[in-house]
Design brief:
539 residues; alpha/beta; UDP-N-acetylmuramoyl-L-alanine:D-glutamate ligase; Protein-Tyrosine Phosphatase, Chain A; 2 domains; 8-stranded mixed sheet; 6-stranded mixed sheet; 17 helices; globular; disordered C terminus
Length: 539
């Protein structure tokens, strides 16, 4: 399938992104069926049949679990494909081979190989008066094609949203993981946990092993899961019954856990992530890995430990700097907030923690803030780059004042300014100047986490990267004004994961225009942008 020289035509990555993202939004315009995906796989010759599959859904924890399962499989010498969403900075983050995301050239090359096949599906859909393939469907097809081309032994695939009608559900899972099912994306999945669970159990396929994580609404959700498993003659592995987290001890950089699976007990396994929820994500990942790794009985404990001790998950309770401590988290629902709070309370000793929060308008905003209220000394409400979905800062301020009280809420509409204000605030109270006990938590959306990551890693305000002793407080750079969007542009703003974000088209902030590529990206973001397909750390 592949060319000897990837991107031999020297195409621009941003042009390819724009080409793909000019497609209809899966959330709003695509019929709820898998017709387009089944057709493209037929045309491709069913490449998905060449590898084993771990398929992962759930309201939170998908991305973390996927990366853990991939690391375990790779530690055993298996070639792995990883497909996750949303991305934080660049779209090629979503597709990885053997732990390495696709390069720009490989991404472009993959699109070149399948775009004519996509056009054939589009033509047939036009004849049937149906929408052409959506962005998320095309990206899923690219991932499957690339996995077969590598070729990989096992693909670890995270759903975009839901399960039953998700583009990834053309795959027949060997192991189907269902993480915690809770309230999120109600406009698309249903207004009750029962309805949401009914969508997510769609990934349980005949004869597979269904690995079921802890359920916050167990009485409502488990009967639905168990019935789906029964109908598909699936082997059930339930957290707390067939598998369990036996012991969990917080440690530097994460925790040490003892995990019991149907095949054995793994003692004192280091997990390089904070939070009880990550111990249970590791358990689910291990149970699924046991299904696809060709070994009888328990896996090698040293290999499992090596794998889980090295997993990094950007944007999921991610400490991005010290002095002061700055933590990023993309979680955006109540269950995610609960996990975030528990992890911070267990692993940090903050005397002062200032929250910088930007959220989408369709989330349970007041409930999310209510969970974090005991954790935060002050909250700065702001806006992220996804202007069409983000809650206006003034509206978020009104809700936050009901939760925190007006004296604990500051409104700073531009995110770079908000981050700087938070840093100034904790620096002012840090008498020793070492950052200990003083921190900033940037959270509320994967778009927010992705924007902040770019700002702190690159140069919207390079002063933010310096320790306090070297820091000069400067006014943050004003973002360039955004151009008005017409109705066609609005189709680009979403995919199967409602937390898809503007960073699919590049960076935020005018000072990144010094670089030619990011200059193009900024222009693209203004004219043709499109959430995750997380998603997760806590998701």
């Amino acid at each position: 399938m592949s060319f000897e020289h990837p991107n031999r035509n020297n195409e621009s990555m941003i042009d390819v992104e724009r080409d793909i993202m000019s497609r209809p939004s899966e959330r709003n315009t695509t019929n709820l069926d898998l017709q387009r995906m089944k057709m493209i796989l037929d045309i491709m010759g069913h490449p998905e049949q060449s590898f084993r599959v771990i398929h992962i859904t759930g309201t939170n924890g998908k991305g973390s679990t996927a990366r853990m399962a991939e690391a375990i499989c790779r530690a055993y010498g298996m070639r792995t494909g990883l497909y996750t969403s949303p991305h934080l900075e660049h779209v090629n983050e979503r597709i990885a081979i053997d732990g390495q995301q696709l390069s720009d050239d490989d991404f472009v090359d993959t699109w070149d190989q399948i775009k004519d096949l996509v056009a054939m599906v589009d033509m047939k859909m036009e004849e049937l008066d149906k929408p052409k393939m959506s962005f998320f469907e095309v990206l899923t097809a690219m991932a499957i094609w690339k996995f077969a081309d590598a070729p990989v032994d096992v693909a670890i695939v995270e759903v975009g949203m839901g399960g039953r009608w998700d583009a990834t559900n053309v795959l027949d899972a060997d192991a189907a993981i269902i993480g915690p099912v809770d309230m999120d994306h109600m406009a698309w999945l249903g207004n009750t946990v029962e309805q949401i669970a009914s969508e997510k159990v769609g990934i349980i396929k005949p004869g597979c092993t269904a690995v079921i994580g802890r359920q916050p609404h167990e009485e409502a959700v488990m009967p639905i899961i168990e019935e789906a498993a029964k109908q598909n003659h699936a082997n059930l592995v339930r957290d707390g019954i067939e598998a369990e987290v036996v012991i969990r001890i917080p440690a530097v950089g994460g925790q040490v856990v003892t995990l019991r699976t149907p095949n054995g007990t793994y003692a004192e396994v280091p997990v390089a992530k904070f939070g009880e929820h990550q111990a249970h994500n590791a358990l689910a990942a291990l149970c699924a890995a046991e299904v696809v790794i060709p070994v009888n009985g328990a896996l090698d404990g040293d290999l499992v430990a090596e794998a889980l001790s090295t997993v990094k998950i950007p944007g999921r309770i991610e400490q991005i700097r010290t002095s002061p401590t700055i933590i990023l988290d993309g979680g955006h629902n109540v269950n995610a907030a609960e996990s975030l709070r528990a992890a911070i309370e267990e692993n940090y000793d903050f005397q002062q923690l200032v929250g910088v929060i930007a959220m989408m308008g369709d989330k349970q905003v007041e409930e999310y803030l209510g969970v974090l209220e005991p954790l935060l000394s002050h909250v700065i409400v702001t806006e992220n780059s996804w202007r069409d979905r983000v809650m206006p800062a003034e509206d978020l301020k009104k809700i936050a004042e009901r939760v925190f009280g007006a004296e604990r809420v500051t409104c700073v509409p531009e995110l770079p300014d908000a981050i700087q204000e938070a840093v100034n605030m904790v620096d002012a109270d840090d008498e020793l100047g070492v950052g200990y006990g003083h921190g900033v938590l940037i959270c509320g959306s994967f778009t927010t986490a992705g924007d902040a990551r770019l700002m702190l890693e690159e140069k919207v305000n390079p002063d933010l990267k310096k320790p306090k002793s070297e820091r000069v407080f400067q006014e943050a750079v004003e973002p360039e004004p955004r151009k008005d969007q017409d109705e066609a542009d609005l189709d680009f703003e979403s995919d199967a994961n409602p937390d898809f974000d503007i960073n699919d088209f590049g960076s935020v902030g005018p000072d990144l225009a010094e670089n030619e590529d990011t200059d193009v990206s900024e222009d693209a973001a203004d004219t043709e942008r499109a959430d995750d397909a997380s998603s997760d750390g806590v998701r």
